């Protein structure tokens, strides 16, 4: 992420979706995708327009020769998180599904955007690529079938992460000279997958809280635990980079593993009875 985008994101979240500078007065959202290579969440500001129940964003990259990174990410994983400013001056966050429009629909939507903002006509004229138009569809969590699907996916991902966590722990038995390198390789895979999972969960939690208000306190705890896990992973990665002593690495991995096992168990104990009471 560039420093410029980082400042825009910080200002957006601090001011209920309003920013100054080149985006002042623009309809702006924050789009968080999962890195196609890294598996880590990446947040990008994007201009949007409403089109019925969906939101449209444009992969213009200011007319550059390549699609922006966020477009490649959502092509690999259509599950995204959207942040929007509200009339009350807060930021609403929700999970969405990204759909790349095609053919006549894409051409019509892009032409309409050019009519609204001639800069987009200049962007298209300045590049050989066809600038994609992406529709963002809010995930509907009122359908019981959707609840069951979320519950099943939660268990599936937790089981996969538990298996990767076990492999990470097995690496602790490596001889001291190779321990750091082995842990670094496992952490690259595991930490990326865990970060993407928590990013996707955070996008769903706000919707779940509206659907199941009795879960508000539990969801707040899960959010706090996500933040604590992110800090712990950052600390572990810093230790790996600095070449910390094997004993220190073993202690940190065990601490992280214990906390994650408790976190997974707590999420399942709170969410599964609400989402899939028949399980």
From TrEMBL:
All copies of the Hemerythrin-like domain together span 151-275
Q: Has UniProt tagged this entry with the keyword NAD?
A: no
Superkingdom, taxonomy of origin: Bacteria
- InterPro entries per the UniProt record, alphabetical: F420H2_quin_Rdtase (IPR004378), Hemerythrin-like (IPR012312), Split_barrel_FMN-bd (IPR012349)
- Which parts of the chain are coiled coil? 205-239
Query: What is this enzyme's catalytic activity, as reactions?
Result: oxidized coenzyme F420-(gamma-L-Glu)(n) + a quinol + H(+) = reduced coenzyme F420-(gamma-L-Glu)(n) + a quinone
Q: Which SUPFAM superfamilies match?
A: FMN-binding split barrel
- Which CDD domains does this entry report, sorted A to Z? Hr-like (cd12108)
Q: Tell me yes or no: is Coiled coil among this UniProt entry's keywords.
A: yes
Question: Which Gene Ontology CC terms are recorded?
Answer: plasma membrane
Could you tell me one molecular function GO term of this UniProt entry? oxidoreductase activity
Q: Which UniProt keywords apply?
A: Coiled coil
**What is stated as this protein's family in its record?**
Belongs to the F420H(2)-dependent quinone reductase family.
Q: Under which name does UniProt file this protein?
A: Deazaflavin-dependent oxidoreductase (Nitroreductase family)
Q: Which organism is it from?
A: Streptomyces nymphaeiformis
Q: What is the lineage of its organism?
A: Bacteria, Bacillati, Actinomycetota, Actinomycetes, Kitasatosporales
